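Worked example 2:
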Amino acid sequence: MRRFVCKSLGPWLLSSYVAWCAVQGLASASVLRYEKLPSMSRSDALAYLQPKVQIQQSLAEGDAVRELGFLPGGDSIYPYAVNGRGQIVGTATDVTPSDANPFWRPVVSQDGRWVNIAPEYPHWSLQAIDINDKGQVVGGNNNGMWEGEAFLYESGKFQPLGTLGGRTSVARAINEAGLIVGSSRTSPDIEPWAQPSHAILFAEGRMYDLNDLTDNLGNWNLHEAADITEEGWILTWGYPRGGGYVEYNWLKPILEDGQTPTPDPDPSTQPPPVPEPVSAALWVGLVGSLIAWRGRRLKVVHDPSSKS
């Protein structure tokens, strides 16, 4: 495991160097451990995630997605994220009407059109949810009913990431270090939508149950990991194993010798500031200018999570 060795630098370099050290340490850690921090309010958790929601809304309403059109044969597209290079990811249908086929396809924008990145898995219902600036795309099963696994797509290669024993899993986020978080069903013996779900971390080529990596859990079950920061802090939600109210928690990584990379601001004490909606819209507009806009006008934008 790599140690943190932050040399004495000028104040104007120190903060960026500390962040780089954190990412390097996390990326090379052989086994990570986490500490569950005290629960936060639902409003604080949603405030942290709000910028992502605003970007999704701006993409869905913007010209970049409309000009990209649809997959051949399809009539619906729902975008989820865009990276600093202007690459957009989402989920789309390839039949018309979309209700005729319950299977959704994970897509990424490429050369002014949508590309299905998992054509070899036609019987999986998938969504591409996040993309980092390296172009690594993650996603997974989109409704809990049909089969489909969490995946990583990079350099033109689609890689299923497996499950914790159930039939479905999903990756919700990836950071620049390549750490992936999400959730997985754990039992193959009951209907997929009724299977218990555990929060997951995918690192160093394997899937980990975050319940096994987190100290001081007690009777708590980490149900899903919703996001991961560049410093490796993981936003989760869960509930008592015997049933109870949902709560939201940060998992703080514990590295060698008890060292912990600390974001600024510390998410355990306050969520990052939420940008005004117009700021997100303008940012998406600027990113959209990088895309070669072609294709038919978008007639339907549909969120597959609304399907029964």
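DSSP finds five helices and 17 strands in the chain. Residues 173 and 227 are 5 Å apart (CA to CA).
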